Amino acid sequence: MILLQLLWGFFKVGCFSFGGAYAAIPLIREVVLSYGWLSDEMLTYMIAVSESTPGPIMVNLATYVGTAEAGLAGALTATFAVVLPSFLLVLLLTAVLSRVIKNPYVQAVLRGLKPCMIGIILVTGGRMIIQNLFEESGTFDPRALLITALLACVYFSRGRLFKKSLSPILLIVLAALLGMIVYAL
């Protein structure tokens, strides 16, 4: 039964995740919370872990949840389910893309999806920041605010600090170091 739930839950995530992993986070959140696979706080931690480990966030989350719920069979099922729709879609698109991409209706759909994905990513990021600023008990965590503010300063002043664009790897390493320093004090 759990394998079917993992298959169906992550297949839905794979089918309706447009705009990349960050845009998929609200859908992933809805699925894992509805099945009771993760708490909201644990999901936030797993998003952070999935972001800082190699591979796509959705695949990493699916593999983690599948493993936690049903071991190796669950990991394989959830991972297969989340990548299957994209795999099939890419196969279909490569067959017809060269003929369809210049179609004005296709271009209109793609232009319409872009602001939608940006909005979803912004709302998800804002929600994660707010959740991060409050501990599980609901009390405000000034240390989380300090880390968030420092990372925002580094990111938004990257043009002055760095000659080229800021590497996400550097930002992740900096966040980890700040977390160790601030929470160890």
First and last CA, distance: 46 Å
**Secondary structure: number of strands:** 0
| Rg over CA atoms | 19 Å
- Principal-axes geometry comes out as globular
Mean pLDDT: 88
Q: Give the biggest sheet.
A: none
H/I helix tally: 8
Secondary structure category = mainly alpha
How large is the share of residues in beta strands?
under 5%
Describe the structure.
This protein has a domain at 2-100. It contains eight helices and no strands. It starts with a helix and ends with a helix. With 185 residues, it is mainly alpha-helical. Helix 1 crosses helix 4 (57-100) and helix 3 (40-52) crosses helix 4 (57-100). The chain is globular.
Question: Which features does this protein show?
Answer:
single chain, 185 residues, mainly alpha, 82% helix, globular
Briefly characterize the structure.
The protein is mainly alpha-helical.
Break the fold down into its secondary structure elements and pairings:
Layout: H1 2-16, H2 21-35, H3 40-52, H4 57-100, H5 104-132, H6 142-156, H7 158-161, H8 168-184
Helix pairs in contact: 1-2, 1-4, 2-5, 3-4, 6-8
